[in-house]
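User: Could you check the structure of this?
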Amino acid sequence: MNNASLAKANIKKYGLKILAVCFWLLLWELLSRWKGNEIFLASPKAAFGALLELSRSLDFWQTILFSSLRIILGFVLALSAGIVLAIGSYQSILIRELIAPIMS
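Assistant: Sure, the predicted structure tokens are below.
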């Protein structure tokens, strides 16, 4: 594949993604204007402005950090429980039968 065709493929690939994002942002903006109530549905401009303002605050980043840590901890606990139950159900028919309804 030469450089020109590779560039065309990249433009097509990323161009479609950009168009999809623009579509959803436009839909969000139109719905916000149609509703006419910033409390019910804020516009994209208002939402990104508020996000930018919040990002200047240390509390915002602490909240992001603590939320991320809780998400990671939940994932690790779920993964650990899954491994333990998988090993247990492989070795014991009782455990396998106990968790079968949950797996279904």
